Amino acid sequence: MRRLPEWLIPVLAATLLIALPAAAQQVTLERDSPLYAEPRLEAAQVTQLKQGASGEVIGKQGAWLNLKTAGGSGWLFSFNVRFQSQKAEGGDGGPALGRVFGPRRNVNVTSTIGVRGLDEQDLRQASFSAAQMKALDGYAVSKQAAEEGARATGLGPEKVEYLDAKR
Asked: What is the DSSP string of 107-137?
Protein backbone atom coordinates (compact mmCIF):
# COMPACT_ATOMS: atom_id res chain seq x y z
CA MET A 1 0.00 0.00 0.00
CA ARG A 2 1.34 3.43 -0.97
CA ARG A 3 1.87 6.02 1.68
CA LEU A 4 0.79 9.68 1.31
CA PRO A 5 3.58 12.26 1.16
CA GLU A 6 4.08 13.97 4.53
CA TRP A 7 3.39 17.44 3.15
CA LEU A 8 -0.03 16.34 1.83
CA ILE A 9 -1.51 15.43 5.23
CA PRO A 10 -1.55 19.02 6.62
CA VAL A 11 -2.98 20.29 3.32
CA LEU A 12 -5.82 17.76 3.47
CA ALA A 13 -6.49 18.57 7.13
CA ALA A 14 -6.64 22.30 6.42
CA THR A 15 -8.98 21.71 3.49
CA LEU A 16 -11.34 19.70 5.71
CA LEU A 17 -11.29 22.38 8.41
CA ILE A 18 -12.33 25.00 5.87
CA ALA A 19 -14.85 22.90 3.92
CA LEU A 20 -16.75 21.22 6.76
CA PRO A 21 -17.99 24.38 8.51
CA ALA A 22 -18.90 25.88 5.14
CA ALA A 23 -21.29 23.04 4.42
CA ALA A 24 -23.25 23.81 7.60
CA GLN A 25 -23.73 27.58 7.14
CA GLN A 26 -27.06 28.78 8.56
CA VAL A 27 -29.22 31.26 6.63
CA THR A 28 -32.50 33.11 7.19
CA LEU A 29 -34.93 33.96 4.38
CA GLU A 30 -35.37 37.67 3.75
CA ARG A 31 -38.52 37.16 1.65
CA ASP A 32 -41.04 34.44 0.81
CA SER A 33 -39.29 32.13 -1.64
CA PRO A 34 -40.05 28.94 -3.55
CA LEU A 35 -37.74 25.99 -2.89
CA TYR A 36 -37.06 24.09 -6.14
CA ALA A 37 -36.07 20.45 -6.69
CA GLU A 38 -33.20 21.55 -8.99
CA PRO A 39 -31.24 24.79 -9.44
CA ARG A 40 -33.44 26.15 -12.24
CA LEU A 41 -36.75 28.02 -12.40
CA GLU A 42 -38.43 25.34 -14.52
CA ALA A 43 -37.83 22.66 -11.86
CA ALA A 44 -40.63 21.29 -9.68
CA GLN A 45 -41.33 23.36 -6.60
CA VAL A 46 -40.64 21.41 -3.38
CA THR A 47 -42.31 23.92 -1.05
CA GLN A 48 -42.92 27.62 -0.49
CA LEU A 49 -40.76 29.05 2.31
CA LYS A 50 -41.89 32.05 4.35
CA GLN A 51 -39.81 35.10 5.23
CA GLY A 52 -37.93 34.47 8.47
CA ALA A 53 -37.61 30.71 7.93
CA SER A 54 -34.11 29.35 8.46
CA GLY A 55 -32.11 26.57 6.92
CA GLU A 56 -28.70 25.06 6.43
CA VAL A 57 -26.70 25.55 3.22
CA ILE A 58 -25.54 22.16 1.97
CA GLY A 59 -24.31 23.20 -1.47
CA LYS A 60 -24.01 25.95 -4.06
CA GLN A 61 -24.26 26.17 -7.85
CA GLY A 62 -23.90 29.59 -9.44
CA ALA A 63 -26.41 31.95 -7.82
CA TRP A 64 -28.34 29.00 -6.35
CA LEU A 65 -28.04 27.57 -2.84
CA ASN A 66 -28.97 24.01 -1.91
CA LEU A 67 -30.84 24.48 1.35
CA LYS A 68 -32.00 22.01 3.99
CA THR A 69 -35.02 23.28 5.96
CA ALA A 70 -37.72 21.86 8.21
CA GLY A 71 -40.05 21.97 5.17
CA GLY A 72 -37.69 19.99 2.94
CA SER A 73 -34.49 20.31 0.96
CA GLY A 74 -34.09 22.08 -2.35
CA TRP A 75 -32.65 25.02 -4.25
CA LEU A 76 -33.29 28.75 -4.05
CA PHE A 77 -31.61 31.99 -5.13
CA SER A 78 -28.83 33.12 -2.80
CA PHE A 79 -30.22 36.68 -3.11
CA ASN A 80 -33.25 35.65 -1.03
CA VAL A 81 -31.30 34.78 2.13
CA ARG A 82 -29.22 36.45 4.80
CA PHE A 83 -26.33 34.50 6.26
CA GLN A 84 -26.44 34.45 10.04
CA SER A 85 -23.91 36.63 11.81
CA GLN A 86 -20.63 35.01 12.63
CA LYS A 87 -20.53 36.95 15.91
CA ALA A 88 -23.72 35.12 16.88
CA GLU A 89 -21.84 31.89 16.20
CA GLY A 90 -19.07 33.02 18.52
CA GLY A 91 -16.28 33.31 15.95
CA ASP A 92 -14.51 36.13 14.23
CA GLY A 93 -13.47 34.27 11.11
CA GLY A 94 -16.54 32.10 10.70
CA PRO A 95 -17.12 29.49 8.04
CA ALA A 96 -15.62 30.05 4.62
CA LEU A 97 -18.97 30.03 2.78
CA GLY A 98 -20.30 32.65 5.20
CA ARG A 99 -17.31 34.90 4.52
CA VAL A 100 -17.92 34.65 0.79
CA PHE A 101 -21.69 35.30 0.80
CA GLY A 102 -22.38 37.10 4.08
CA PRO A 103 -23.18 38.18 6.63
CA ARG A 104 -24.25 41.44 5.12
CA ARG A 105 -23.14 44.55 6.94
CA ASN A 106 -25.36 47.61 7.24
CA VAL A 107 -24.13 49.31 4.08
CA ASN A 108 -26.05 50.78 1.19
CA VAL A 109 -25.16 48.65 -1.81
CA THR A 110 -27.10 48.36 -5.02
CA SER A 111 -26.70 45.12 -6.94
CA THR A 112 -27.95 44.43 -10.44
CA ILE A 113 -28.03 41.38 -12.64
CA GLY A 114 -28.01 41.89 -16.35
CA VAL A 115 -27.03 40.60 -19.73
CA ARG A 116 -24.61 42.50 -21.88
CA GLY A 117 -25.91 43.70 -25.19
CA LEU A 118 -24.68 43.02 -28.69
CA ASP A 119 -21.75 45.03 -29.96
CA GLU A 120 -20.60 45.68 -33.52
CA GLN A 121 -18.29 42.64 -33.55
CA ASP A 122 -21.15 40.35 -32.46
CA LEU A 123 -23.27 41.61 -35.34
CA ARG A 124 -20.48 41.11 -37.88
CA GLN A 125 -19.95 37.52 -36.75
CA ALA A 126 -23.67 36.68 -36.72
CA SER A 127 -25.01 34.19 -39.22
CA PHE A 128 -28.44 32.79 -40.04
CA SER A 129 -29.41 29.58 -38.29
CA ALA A 130 -32.55 27.82 -39.46
CA ALA A 131 -32.45 25.58 -36.35
CA GLN A 132 -32.43 28.61 -34.03
CA MET A 133 -35.29 30.23 -35.95
CA LYS A 134 -37.30 27.01 -35.60
CA ALA A 135 -36.55 26.95 -31.86
CA LEU A 136 -37.65 30.59 -31.61
CA ASP A 137 -40.92 29.78 -33.38
CA GLY A 138 -41.49 27.06 -30.76
CA TYR A 139 -41.82 29.75 -28.08
CA ALA A 140 -44.71 31.47 -29.87
CA VAL A 141 -48.19 31.33 -28.36
CA SER A 142 -51.51 32.68 -29.57
CA LYS A 143 -52.68 36.13 -28.50
CA GLN A 144 -55.45 34.48 -26.45
CA ALA A 145 -52.99 32.18 -24.63
CA ALA A 146 -50.70 35.13 -23.87
CA GLU A 147 -53.59 37.20 -22.49
CA GLU A 148 -54.82 34.29 -20.35
CA GLY A 149 -51.33 33.70 -18.98
CA ALA A 150 -50.93 37.39 -18.15
CA ARG A 151 -54.30 37.53 -16.38
CA ALA A 152 -53.47 34.39 -14.40
CA THR A 153 -50.42 36.15 -12.94
CA GLY A 154 -52.23 39.43 -12.24
CA LEU A 155 -50.96 41.37 -15.24
CA GLY A 156 -53.23 43.66 -17.24
CA PRO A 157 -53.04 45.85 -20.34
CA GLU A 158 -51.11 49.10 -20.10
CA LYS A 159 -50.95 51.84 -22.73
CA VAL A 160 -47.38 52.86 -23.54
CA GLU A 161 -46.58 55.98 -25.56
CA TYR A 162 -43.96 55.91 -28.28
CA LEU A 163 -40.65 57.50 -27.31
CA ASP A 164 -41.02 60.31 -29.85
CA ALA A 165 -44.60 61.11 -28.79
CA LYS A 166 -45.36 64.77 -27.96
CA ARG A 167 -46.34 65.39 -24.36
From this structure: -------------HHHHHH----HHHHHHHH
Tell whether 75 is covered by a domain: yes
Report the domain count for the chain: 1
Q: Give 43's DSSP letter.
A: S
CA dist 21 and 98 (Å) reads: 9
Q: What is the pLDDT of residues 77-127, one digit of tens each?
A: 888 888 876 444 444 444 555 555 555 555 555 555 555 667 788 788 888
Query: In terms of residue numbers, what domain contains 91?
Result: 8-101
Q: Indicate the pTM of the whole model.
A: 0.42
Domain harbouring 81, CATH code: 2.30.30.40
Residues in a beta bridge with 26? 56
Q: 43-52, long-range: CB within 8 Å, 24+ apart, which pairs? A: 43/75, 46/71, 46/72, 46/73, 46/74, 47/71, 47/72, 47/74, 49/76, 52/28
45 located within any domain: yes
Residue 166 within a domain: no
